[in-house]
Amino acid sequence: MEALIHPNTIYVNSKSIETELYNHITAAHPSAEIVLIKHNTESYNSMYGLSDHRPSEHFREKKTKAALLHREAKWKPDPNGNSTDFLPGLMISQGCGFGCTYCYTERHFPNNFLKLYDDAFNVVEMIKQTINSEQAWREKMLAVAKKDFEKHRDNNHCNNITFDLGCDSDCVLDNQLTSHAGYSGHIIDIMNQVSLIPGVKTSFATKSSQFNRFLSDIKRPSHHRIRLSLMPEHHRKALEINTATITSRLAAVNDLVEKGFEVHINLSPIIVTSDFIDEYTDLLQLIDNSLSQRAKDQLAYEIIFLTHATSQFECVSNYAPKAHKMMVEGPLPIVPKPNKPNVLSYSTKDKVHLKQTIKGLISNITPYGRIRYCY
Predict the structure, then answer these.
(1) Which strands form 334-337's sheet, in the order they lie side by side?
(2) Which end of the chain is more exposed for a tag (fewer CB within 10 A), N or C?
(3) Residue 317 burial (10 A CB sphere; 0-12, 13-18, 19+)
(4) Is residue 71 exposed (0-12), middle (13-18) or buried (19+ Cβ within 10 Å)?
(5) Element (H, E) at 281
(6) What are residue 114's DSSP bridge partners?
(7) Among residues 147, 115, 101, 100, which one has the least CA distance to residue 37?
(8) Which residues of the chain carry a pLDDT beneath 50?
(9) What number of other Cβ atoms are within 10 A of residue 303's Cβ?
(10) pLDDT at position 314
(11) What are phi and psi for residue 180, nearest 5 degrees?
(12) For the chain, which domains are there?
């Protein structure tokens, strides 16, 4: 069953209690206990006694805790060029209520329950400043990411610069932390504010299907791209604990496209099993059978093969042994990446064949879905 955010304990930095987000979090979760803390580190460092890094506590903390943390930092965009032109240099939030066993943020933050930062709305001003200096940031993009803006390199792209709203959390789940009867939620608020800035499109990836408020309260849907992550359903059950089913995510694609959103599909992460070809043939056929014609006409894929980490082995093997076995005991070995020895993936040589295989399946089964990137 898909997780919903219902924390019974919310850690709040004492400097955050006068903020707009504090008012919305307390209105959204009036029965939650508010625990004031002086320093952000108290919310995730187990030495303070507020969090517990034992694997046995992994999901209990994700389901029962959240935090509103204070931050005073200068926001700058981070040239990316993959899913979007820019990532925010600072994330709106960090952590998640889902339990994806391959989660890269949990390589650094064990028991990573949702933490929202009280300066989240600064992302709007960051985007305005970037757009006002578009040529300078275009040059920066070319220098850092070695790519031009999407609108210049992609003939299918609209005349907008794209900004990801965060990759250290799930924005649909995040929005539930502040959504209440009188307020749509901070993510929807930010999306509506950004959509008023000419030449901008937001984006985020999700494993949720809870889009009711997005469908009803987003004012300019065409200014946003949402990426639904998909994998075979029996993989999801093992690897993406508490997330939405694959069929419900596909239904959400149709609903969002009908409303006017751009919606792409992430095949991510691809776990190679001995039945890899059959599993992804079935998944692509399910996509083909499920999507409306309107959804197919605008479809694009992002494809990412598994990355895992040695730092997660003990934790994941403890709370999700089936998932751990699926990731580390497949027919192809996962090996350290040359530039990141703690990060494991399929070898460069193996990926050459894997990329050819998945691209061939897409070409045969869903030829209308272009591939934005594959790595």
Answers:
(1) 308-309, 340-346, 334-337
(2) N
(3) middle
(4) middle
(5) helix 276-290
(6) 66
(7) 115
(8) none
(9) 20
(10) 85
(11) -150, -175
(12) 78-90+121-374 (3.80.30.30)
Contact 227, 206 (CB under 8 A): yes
Output the 3-class SS for 184-218.
CCHHHHHHHHHCCCCCEEEEEEECCCCCHHHHHHC
User: How much is the pTM?
Assistant: 0.96
Assess whether the previous peptide bond of 269 is cis (omega < 30° from 0). Answer: yes
Beta-bridge partners for 263: 226
Report residue 276 as tokens: 């890899």
Q: Please, which residues have CB within 8 angstroms of residue 16's CB and are 6 or more apart in sequence? A: 22, 68, 69, 70, 118
Q: How far is CA 89 from CA 77, 79, 127, 163, 259, in A?
A: 5, 9, 11, 11, 30
Residue 135 DSSP SS3: helix
The two structure tokens encoding residue 293 = 């014609």
Q: What's the distance, CA 27 to chain centroid?
A: 25
The residue assigned the tokens 């004031």 is 36
Report in angstroms the alpha-carbon separations of 283 from 5, 257, 314. Answer: 29, 20, 30
Helix (H) or strand (E) holding 150: helix 150-153
C-alpha–C-alpha distance, residues 166 and 172, integer Å: 11
For residue 178, the model assigns a pLDDT of 98
Give the tens place of pLDDT for each residue, 158-195: 899 999 998 889 999 999 999 999 999 999 999 999 99
Q: Which tokens hold the place of 185?
A: 């939620």
Query: Are 113 and 67 a contacting pair, CB within 8 Å?
Result: yes
Beta strand 86-88 with 77-79 is antiparallel
Q: Cα–Cα distance between 108 and 111 in angstroms, integer?
A: 10
Which pLDDT score, from 0 to 100, does residue 175 have?
A: 97
Residue with tokens 């999407």: 150
- 3-state secondary structure (DSSP) of residue 251: helix
Dihedral sign, CA of 50, 55, 57, 59?
positive
Q: Which amino acid is at 146?
A: K
CB 18 within 8 A of CB 76: no
State the Cα–Cα distance between residues 252 and 244, nearest whole angstrom.
10
DSSP single-letter state for residue 177: T
